[in-house]
Design brief:
This protein is an all-alpha fold and 135 residues long. It has two domains: 1-74; 86-134, no CATH class. 74% of the residues lie in helices and 0% in strands. It has helices at 2-67, 91-94, 97-103, 106-120, 127-134. 0% of the residues are buried.
């Protein structure tokens, strides 16, 4: 009897092991099916998103093309003669940036702009402060 009981217990264990293995195999198959479905769903969503982005890009391109300003054609005609200045020279012959800068005393404006922080601090008349600022 003890042998029969032991043998019965071993058979029960073997049957339980087979049932567990079968259940594990079913669970594995089900999990693989769920993973495959999730992957297919994700690929479909990605495809839909790509189509939507492509359509949006086309719409943006059309909107940008519609918003581009038309090319402006400037009127063409005879050139006007240059303005004559004293001595028969034209304004463009006589005028230059350097002569304008000298005449406008730009160096004084630049010096005043450099010294302004010193003046704000009450050091406008201090030559050492001006030298320190420039250094």
């Amino acid at each position: 009897r003890a042998v029969d009981a032991k043998s019965k217990a071993e058979r029960s264990t073997i049957v339980a092991d087979h049932k567990a293995e079968a259940e594990l195999a079913r669970a594995n198959v089900e999990a693989q099916a769920q993973v495959a479905k999730a992957k297919a769903d994700a690929e479909a969503e990605l495809s839909r998103a790509q189509v939507t982005m492509e359509k949006a890009g086309q719409m943006i391109g059309k909107a940008m093309a519609a918003a581009e300003p038309a090319t402006v054609q400037l009127a063409t005609g005879p050139k006007l003669p240059p303005i004559a200045v004293d001595g028969g020279e034209t304004a463009s012959d006589k005028w230059s940036l350097l002569s304008w800068a000298e005449g406008a005393a730009i160096h004084r404006i630049v010096a005043a702009a450099i010294r302004q922080p010193l003046v704000d601090e009450g050091l406008g008349e201090d030559p050492d402060a001006a030298l320190g600022l420039l250094r």
